[in-house]
């Protein structure tokens, strides 16, 4: 029992030295990296358990390389999801174009304004499908501005067709 207690106290006595040397390795390394925020570097290495416990520069390099592999893999996964979502958006926008082209054709042929309105109204909601697809897979929708603009334009067109349908044009 005394041996275990002595080992415990010996470990506690060594701990500040280990922490100081780890901190020293991180501080020294981060202060020497060109074109890198010192505070960012220290924050990243201190927060990463293998970085915080590294005893030399090689250990820090291994820790940051492993962290980089993890982050890059995560980014690749996110990009793969984004490609799938963008492909879904392409399908939505092709459908939107089909609706609008059919409505324009109906306008030229003098067809019923109610049918034209229905097509343009459906088209005006198509960008929302793209927003939903992108929102589910990305923190920031890279198409948000374009989707909003396309939705607004389609709503204007459907609003005009609505006025035509109800004889208010």
Can you lay out the helices and strands and say which pair or pack?
Blueprint: H1 2-32, H2 38-47, H3 49-52, H4 57-108, H5 113-137, H6 144-165
Helix pairs in contact: 1-2, 4-5, 5-6
InterPro entries: Invertase/methylesterase_inhib (IPR035513), Pectinesterase_inhib_dom (IPR006501)
Signal peptide: 1-21
Domain Pectinesterase inhibitor: 21-160
Q: Explain this structure to me?
A:
Residues 21-160 form the Pectinesterase inhibitor domain. By secondary structure, the chain is mainly α. The chain folds into two domains: 20-71; 79-165, no CATH class. The chain is built from six helices and no strands. The longest helix has 52 residues, at 57-108.
